[in-house]
Amino acid sequence: MLDIAFAKPALPKSGALVLLLEEGAAATAPTGALLAAADEATGGAIGRALAAAEFKGKRGQIATILAPGAGLSRVVAVGLGKLDGIAARQLEDAGGQAAAALAREAAASISAVGLSGQQAGHVAMGLALRSYRFDRYRTTEKPEDKPKLAKATVLTAELPKARDAWADLKAVAEGVFLSRDLVSEPANVLNPAEMAERCRKLTALGLKVEVFGPKEMTKLGFGALMGVAMGSANEPRMVVMTWNGASAGGKGKAKPAAKPLAFIGKGVTFDTGGISIKPAGGMEDMKWDMGGAGTVIGLMAALAGRKAKVDVIGLVGLVENMPSGTAQRPGDVVKSYSGQTIEVINTDAEGRLVLADVLWYCQQKYDPRFMIDLATLTGAMIVALGHEYAGFFANDDTLAQQLHAAGETTGEKVWRMPLGEAYDKQIKSDIADMKNVGGRPGGAITAAQFIQRFVNGKPWVHMDVAGTVWSGKDSPTVPKGATAFGVRLLDQMVAEHYEG
Ligand code: BES
Ligand code: MN
Ligand code: ZN
């Protein structure tokens, strides 16, 4: 994690300076104390350079000036657009853009006119989120080729407020990083057992972590999950993480225990498709088929890290979907933990089988206030929404609204998709209570319809994050690769509606 500090606005004597500038307030008529001071100290070089770059301060606009004088190695101007009513997310984006422009600098100061403490925290968040990098397996990269930025100082007059805001945001950033690390790991390293071990480490944050192995899950009757697992030499796990922030251990006074919130993740550490094997092209992507679980784990770390005043449980079903002599076959019938039987037409529709048992266990054991599951469930979801929005399905309008609003706030955008009995006929089986695929039409919807049969009427949301857990391109706060999509979204939803 980038080392973040806060300081009162002052012109740095050396290193890089980032100026976050309002639209219209830059270039020709330098305003703002630091811009004016820097411009004066460099004999007008900064004003001239910004004018030459036609820098207007439009949102997203960026200009870099190298060695302008006064000991500065680099001045980066980032446009904020109009400051009036600027959203936290826009400040994070500006921080993220700055981080990308600062890769060659070891240290930098970041300033904007009149940045409040809270706003400074969000600039810091953007800087941190963008400077994430997964380089554990690069052994020959030369030090000079690595990004150098190690320390960023955000300038604000409201130091204590900024430090408070950053303390909570930093915990969320750490959850995001944990999630990105898990999703980035290759499947030969991150198998179900290893993933469960990484969950166990969260006890250091005050989470209770319980791990179930194949014996326990077989005994419970997890026939759907175990059917997926049986083709792999790597044993499955289910992990239950508990955070009692409202009833014990939170910041505030202990409250009488309310029902916990529950988050459930699909954790297929590698999805070959099983006997219904996938084509070779792009199969390596299926290392991130545990992204739903990765988000749940990152979210639990974030909530515990900022000592959220709420009781939450996170459950992840961890399996590897492999073809082998012990793998399940198309046409097999399995009995799920709920008692409902499933004809496995296609062994590649494995995520819903895993979720079926974990969701049923969750509602039986914990009677949660609601359940939100996350899964890289269908290619059909990507066809429908591409990579910009995650699709979600809900049997509860309040939850749907809260989730949608949190998406707008955090920029992790979600779009509601329909559920409906009319889709049920697509998953009728001739031999069992249902089959695990419903054909091509509405493939993401029939998957959701399947999962709904295991929520037992509890308020529930299913998020299909197939298109959003991994990104092929850099964006302001998300470098390409694992995104941790959902950690910030769900943290925001919890913070806004379920704490205190
Ligand atoms: N993990 C995949 C879904 C997926 C595919 C996510 C591509 C991201 C990119 C899932 O297990 C799967 O294989 N789904 C099948 C379902 C089908 C057999 C009904 C799919 O979407 O093709
Ligand atoms: Mn699959
Ligand atoms: Zn899958």
Question: What does this 3D model show about the protein?
Answer:
- The chain starts with a strand and ends with a helix.
- The longest helix is centred in the middle third of the chain and has 26 residues, at 159-184.
- It is of the alpha/beta class.
- The strands form 4 sheets. It has an 8-stranded mixed sheet with strand order 7-8-10-9-13-17-14-15, sandwiched between helices. A 6-stranded mixed sheet has the order 1-6-5-2-4-3, with helices on both faces.
- The chain is elongated and about 80 Å long.
- The protein has helices at 33-41, 45-52, 88-101, 117-130, 159-184, 192-200, 214-220, 223-229, 291-305, 351-366, 379-385, 397-410, 443-452, 487-497, and strands spanning 3-7, 15-22, 62-69, 72-81, 107-112, 151-155, 208-212, 237-244, 261-271, 311-321, 332-335, 341-344, 370-375, 390-394, 414-416, 434-435, 460-464, 470-471, 481-482.
- It has 2 domains: 3-158, 3-Layer(aba) Sandwich (Leucine Aminopeptidase, subunit E, domain 1), CATH 3.40.220; 171-497, Aminopeptidase.
- 33% of the residues lie in helices and 22% in strands.
- The mean pLDDT is 96.
- It is built from 14 helices and 19 strands.
- Bound molecules: ligand BES, manganese (II) ion and zinc ion.
- Manganese (II) ion binds at residues 271, 273, 348, 350.
- Zinc ion (ZN) binds at residues 268, 271, 289, 350-351.
